[in-house]
UniProtKB/TrEMBL annotation:
The lineage of its organism: Bacteria, Pseudomonadati, Pseudomonadota, Betaproteobacteria, Burkholderiales. This is Amino acid transporter. It is a multi-pass membrane protein. One of its GO terms (cellular component) is membrane. It comes from Paraburkholderia caballeronis. PANTHER family: AMINO ACID TRANSPORTER-RELATED, PUTRESCINE IMPORTER PUUP. Pfam families: AA_permease (PF00324). Residues 26-380 form the Amino acid permease/ SLC12A domain. It comes from the Bacteria. InterPro entries: AA-permease/SLC12A_dom (IPR004841), APC_superfamily (IPR050367).
Length: 451
């Protein structure tokens, strides 16, 4: 592929990703990436960290995420190309900054599929202890890789079916919790402020829980990497980004509220499997079985979306020669998908064979929050660059909202555990050295973005 310049038509032999996704499909893709059902997988840990105010923790995290989602929407409308925070930073600031944000974002994109597959394998291993855990990991990787190579449209069909099942299980869980509360305390028990407010719980404790709850929202921005495959991307992608954050937040808050009413307090036999304890309490053994099946489906759907996103981020960086173009910029001539990048994401996922969930999740948060901060700063810079032009933004949407989002994201970044900060800093330093090498100690700029 050759590089084109802004305002020029692409060469006739230029390969492009295929536009097939409307707003409902993009929404399903983003929600699958977030895996709303996993709210129950982390409920016990979050409940303990927030002093049993998990619903408020999710609500506070949503407020912070929405400001960033609005910034993503503005930039997706202004730059309708694949690449996410990497593309936006590159176009708004410069090629060097864009590369470093893209490199940092790889922490999130690269290792999130691995974490998803690892958690799914852990659930299956608990249900079928006689089957070696590595078999489940390899099965997840092979199935999701094949679906993503065959095309985003085929993968999307699976996502829609899996998301319907997943959302149905969340709805049933909430209804069972409400039925349990009514049976124990009457209809009046459904109205309570305790999931949101406890006089004895300091705000700082709830805020600490919000930092954990914010991790559940990772993925609301992933659909920005599908801009080149979305129909009418200037409208579809910005709307989808904000709607995914809001819909995901509503699911998290409602689920946490109902669960806390059914099981007041943050004491569980095992915080890591607290939702199973509550599921058995409100629905019995039959529902526990359905709940486990739903969790596995959620991990599968989320794995499809996460792997597709990392494939397209690598494609954007390869297309720009920020990474070797022959490999990373390759698009399969028949399926029109970045096949080699998808395969690479699958190979990286094999690292899960040697890691546990706690270690692997420490990789993904540093890059995500750094990218979120950069996106908000991009909007602020665009606000000043566009002053007095037809593309000028208002002071609220162009300055105030992204400033609040940037501050919130920096706070979330600083709230990460020390191990995650150290690993993130090491990864970022490695990217800085690589950038210095490919640009001859910053004397040259990385290749310009193909538009």
């Amino acid at each position: 592929m050759t590089t084109s310049h802004p305002g020029q038509p692409a060469p006739a032999n230029e390969t492009h990703l295929k536009r097939t996704l409307g707003l409902p499909s993009v929404l399903m893709f983003g929600l699958a990436y977030m895996a709303p059902l996993i709210v129950y997988g982390t409920y016990g840990v979050l409940s303990g960290a927030s002093g049993d105010t998990a619903a408020l923790a999710y609500l506070l995290a949503l407020v912070a995420i929405v400001f960033t989602a609005l910034s993503y929407g503005k930039l997706a409308r202004r730059f309708p190309v694949a690449g996410s925070a990497y593309t936006y930073t590159r176009k708004t600031f410069n090629a060097h900054a864009g590369f470093l944000i893209g490199w940092a974002t790889l922490l999130d994109y690269f290792f999130l599929p691995m974490v998803i597959w690892l958690i799914g394998a852990a659930y299956l291993n608990a249900a079928f202890p006689h089957v070696p855990g590595w078999i489940w990991i390899v099965a997840f990787i092979v199935l999701t890789s094949v679906l993503n190579v065959l095309g985003i449209e085929l993968a999307n069909r699976f996502n829609i079916a899996l998301m319907i099942v997943q959302l149905a299980i969340v709805a049933v869980f909430v209804l069972l919790c409400c039925h349990y509360v009514v049976a124990m305390r009457g209809p009046g028990g459904l109205i309570s402020a305790t999931p949101f407010f406890k006089p004895q719980v300091p705000l700082s404790v709830t805020m600490a829980g919000a930092a954990i709850a914010a991790y559940s929202y990772l993925g609301f921005d992933a659909v920005s990497t599908l801009t080149e495959e979305a129909i009418d991307p200037e409208r579809t992608v910005p709307r989808a980004i904000v709607l995914i954050a809001l819909i995901g937040g509503a699911i998290f808050v409602i689920a946490a509220y109902a669960t806390q009413l059914a099981h007041p307090g943050a004491v569980f036999k095992d915080p890591d499997s607290a939702a199973f304890e509550i599921a058995r309490k409100v629905g019995g053994d039959v529902f526990v079985t359905l709940f486990l099946a739903g969790l596995i489906l959620a991990q599968f759907a989320s794995g499809i979306s996460a792997q597709a996103s990392v494939g397209r981020l690598l494609y954007a960086m390869g297309r720009d020669n920020a990474l070797p173009k022959r490999f990373f910029g390759f698009v399969h001539p028949k399926y029109k998908t970045p096949m080699l990048n998808i395969a690479l994401a699958g190979v990286v996922g094999l690292i899960a064979l040697k890691l546990d969930v706690a270690t692997s999740t420490s990789f993904i948060n540093f890059g995500a929050f750094l990218a979120f901060t950069a996106v908000n700063l991009c909007v602020i810079r665009q606000y000043y660059l566009a002053k007095g032009t037809a593309q000028a933004m208002g002071i609220i949407g162009g300055l105030l909202f992204p400033l609040v989002g940037a501050i919130a994201d920096i706070w979330l970044l600083s709230s990460l555990e020390k191990t995650a900060l150290v690993l993130g800093a090491v990864w970022f330093a490695a990217g800085l050295f690589y950038l210095a090498w490919i640009t001859r100690c910053f004397r040259q700029a990385p290749p310009e973005m193909a538009v």
